[in-house]
Design a protein that fits this description.
By secondary structure, the chain is of the alpha+beta class. Helix content is about 30%, strand content about 30%.
């Protein structure tokens, strides 16, 4: 059985290598496929090369706005925020819109006027908001990223990398508001019908974001995200004439052989020592499953945490502790562990030092 499993894994690796070699045929000048669960890079091509990034800049604009404003705040549009160069949500001077509506205009319609408005709400000066964007980049460890404006218009001192944008997108999607906006295909906001420019939302199962971009100098830029069975992958391509197909190839590679697999069956998971002698059986109530590749199964680690010695006074069904499952050191699941049997109150009472010892010798 073990030999058969190894053969299957070898065959899977060979097939995956074939897919990987095919995926190398990308139009993008630089690209990355990033696994949000493990933080691993699944594929990369010039991923650390600094590039112009066009409107993918707006991911950071959305992050800073969502973290610094009340999204339900209403603002009145000033004349100087209108008529921005490039793509627009066509804001009109004097109209009132909420920050949330501006976020929809920013991410779905790629409105440069929405970016200008969001940047000026902070202090009245766009430059102050851009400083917040750069500070956030430093905070997130995006060492090859710098912003000069909130919209992504080409400037010499405005750049990022495929790797930095993947990390930024992963962070952005942890914000519920941004995640909801990015995943919206079509909506009506601020009295406007908006359709998301991200074609992948309509064509790839599980697609949930993130942002398109284009200028003549930057070329076609795309940051996307796909979630299936609880696993999210993020793809970034910069200067990619055939970006839609590039992303399809990356996701075909990344999700190949990735499926929900059993890790631990419901039932007995271990035993705890009883102070008065003997052991008590421990169990989990539900199966533990997770979306994994065949290769990842061997990189799973399981730990059971609870008192080293149980002093009694527990009923079957009481919580004992937790079982934690990690993949490449990242926690992917944690479940409560319960006593399977009653334990009578122990006549041997633990001393203070017993408790201290037990605390530092958890299973």
């Amino acid at each position: 059985m073990i030999i058969l499993r190894k053969i299957v894994c070898i065959i899977g690796c060979i097939l995956l290598a074939c897919i990987n070699s095919h995926a190398l045929d990308l139009s993008a000048k630089s690209a990355i496929l990033f696994d949000c669960t493990t933080g691993n890079v699944v594929y990369e091509k010039n991923a650390d090369e600094r590039s112009l990034i066009a409107s993918t800049t707006k991911i950071m604009t959305a992050v800073v706005a969502a973290e610094n404003y009340d999204i339900n705040q209403t603002v009145q549009i000033l004349p100087e925020w209108c008529g921005a160069e490039g793509s627009s949500m066509y804001l009109a001077a004097g109209e009132s819109v909420t920050v949330k509506e501006l976020l929809y205009g920013l991410m779905l319609m790629s409105g440069n006027d929405a970016a200008q408005a969001l940047s000026c709400i902070y202090s009245g000066k766009s430059a102050d908001f851009v400083e917040l964007m750069n500070n956030k980049a430093l905070e997130l460890g995006l060492s090859d990223t710098r912003f000069s404006n909130p919209s992504g218009l080409d400037e010499d001192d405005h750049y990022s990398t495929a790797k930095d944008l993947a990390m930024l997108a992963g962070y952005a999607l942890r914000n519920d508001t941004i995640a909801a906006v990015c995943a919206t295909k079509q909506t009506e906001a601020a009295g406007r019908f908006m359709s998301n420019h991200n074609k992948l939302l309509f064509t790839i199962p599980g697609a949930c974001g993130v942002k398109t971009g284009y200028t003549d100098e930057a070329g076609r830029c795309l940051v996307s995200a796909v979630e299936r069975n609880g696993r999210m992958l993020i793809a970034v391509t910069l200067n990619a004439p055939d970006d839609w197909n590039d992303h399809e190839k990356l996701y075909d590679m990344g999700f190949y052989d990735m499926r929900v697999r059993d890790i631990i069956k419901a039932g007995t998971v271990g035993y705890a020592n009883i102070a008065s002698g003997g052991q008590v059986k421990l169990h989990i109530a539900e199966d533990i499953k997770y979306c994994l590749t065949a290769a990842e199964i061997d990189r799973i680690d399981v730990s059971l945490k609870g008192d080293r010695i149980v002093y009694g006074g527990h009923n079957a069904g009481d919580k004992y502790g937790d079982i934690t499952v990690t993949l490449d050191g990242t926690v992917i699941c944690q479940k409560a562990v319960y006593y399977s049997e009653d334990i009578e109150e122990c006549s041997v009472k633990p001393t203070f030092w017993d408790r201290i010892k037990d605390f530092f010798t958890l299973r």
